[in-house]
Amino acid sequence: MTPFDRQADADPARGPMADWRLGQMVADTYQLSKLGGLLYLFGWVVIAWLGGVMAFAPVTALAAGAGFLLLGGLRLLMRPPRAANADQNRRWLLRYALVLPLASVLWSVVQAWLLVDARFDQDTRMVSLIATIGYATVFANIYSTVRHLAAVGVCVLFVPLLAVLWSDPGNRALAVAMSFYALYLAGAVVRSHAEYRRRLRLDQALREQRDLYEHLSRTDPLTGVCNRRHFTARLDLAAQRARAGGPGFTLLILDIDHFKHVNDRHGHAVGDACLKALADRMQRAFPAPGALLARLGGEEFGVLLDGDAASAAQAAEALRHDLAVNPLDADGERLRVTVSIGVGAFDARSHGDGDGLYRAVDMALYAAKAQGRNRVLPVQAAPA
Questions:
Q1: N or C: which end of the chain has fewer CB within 10 A?
Q2: Taking the C-alpha atoms of 334, 365, 249 and 213 in order, what is their torsion angle to the nearest 10 degrees?
Q3: What is the side-by-side order of every strand in the sheet holding 339-345?
Q4: pLDDT (tens digit per residue) in 276-323
Q5: What is the end-to-end Cα distance of the chain in Å, rounded?
Q6: Domain extents for the chain?
């Protein structure tokens, strides 16, 4: 496990949320740092102008400026991969971790040169030190998405600086002051990263809460299958696509025969268990992704199926026969139930929309009940 994996995991369990956290770290790291490389170029232009570097070291001045420009542009070009998986995000972070501190390394070399070269006056050195403090503070407080990146950036900027300052007795007071500031930056790295982690956990909690509410809004709480509202929306969408030349589909509506007798004889708890057991049986008979199962209300269920009415009627008949032969296990009670099923394929000319198909299949269901129940009845084709 890489350091990036450990920081992406807010809890011991790995999975989609851990991958989301890693992806969010990648996006945040790039957005926060993509323009930061150009700040070094701006700082060098100011220092070179104040110190008159072009007068006594033009090649060095241009080389340093080109280096900062190249490294700043490289950051911009290293965009995170779109729709990346966890492995791609890890590889990107590892590459970016090698590129991000390079501008800091170059600035640290420049800073050391400014401190030891007598051709630079005190004002230029002081401006450069202020710039170094600013860059290190940015690393500590802004690039907090990955603690290791922030720590490396601060160390690259401050360790050589402190070494040069402590080596010169004339800079002892400044060395002490900068050492204290380095301790502050170390604490800032820890604090800012902890704050980022808290925000990331909050974002994750909000996403999970949103996903939970979305799931509850489309799920029947008793059986765990879709509810009527979500089913109706999917039915309307399938009808719109079919009218526009998309794939055809079939609707089944199923109702348990004499379900009131189950509640009257065994109680509502067993009745609820019966509905859950039937939903489980139906999910095995009509597996996703080719089918969408919903509880429409009471003891009535609906199924949206890919394909034609003949295949759907065959699958419905197999389910009807299975229920008639094999009892449902409802909390220890073995219940033998029969069902009536209406079946119909969408036809734009006959049905117009999803609601038209629903009415036609519902009429077929009630016709099946009128004809004695325990049967599958297709929608009668409209005359040509």
A1: C
A2: -60
A3: 291-297, 300-306, 249-256, 339-345, 376-378
A4: 999 999 999 999 899 999 999 999 999 999 988 999 999 999 999 999
A5: 67
A6: 3-214, 228-378
DSSP 191: H
Please, which residues have CB within 8 angstroms of residue 303's CB and are 6 or more apart in sequence?
A: 251, 252, 254, 282, 286, 291, 292, 293, 294, 312
Per-residue pLDDT of 219-269, as tens digits, reads 999 999 999 999 999 999 999 999 999 999 999 999 999 999 999 999 999
Q: Is domain 228-378 classified as CATH 3.90.226.10?
A: no
Inter-residue contact 375 to 340 (CB < 8 Å): yes
- Tokens (6 digits) for 244: 């526009």
Tens digit of each residue's pLDDT (9 = 90 or more) over 98-141: 999 999 999 999 999 999 999 999 999 999 999 999 999 998 98
Q: Is 16 exposed, middle or buried (0-12, 13-18, 19+ CB in 10 A)?
A: exposed
Using an 8 Å Cβ cutoff, are 281 and 322 in contact?
yes
Cα–Cα distance measured from residue 140 to residue 89, given in angstroms and rounded to the nearest whole number: 22
